Amino acid sequence: MTDGPPPSDLDAWNARQQALQNSTPPPYFKEREVWWCALGVNVGHEEDGKGQDFSRPVLIVRKFGTLFYAVPLSTTTRRGPFYHPFTYKPERGESVALLSHMRALDSRRLIRKDGMASTQEFQAIRAALLALL
Description:
This protein has 133 residues and is an alpha+beta fold. It contains two helices and seven strands; from the N terminus they run αβββββββα.
């Protein structure tokens, strides 16, 4: 048997995912915004969502209509070429953009807006992503 989430988590995520699939309309969003996003239960070392709605904050890096590229965020301090620390809400403290976990998502996964990265921080994160790619 392999390490992974318990079947109950997968069943709960499946139910949540079906609800997301049927939700309308998707919210309006822009690049640079930070949103709580239903990332779900993922495979292996992919970044999972947490809590009942399987969510975590993400930074919207690029918008394509109702699709977007997002970078998941964490509050766990990490350093190196795959991580970019920044602050988008001073009361929240430092967040870390998990650059190697960037992925394409549908806007129906967006739950609520949580803030916005400064123009300077956003440009630095995009530059770090380009360097990584």
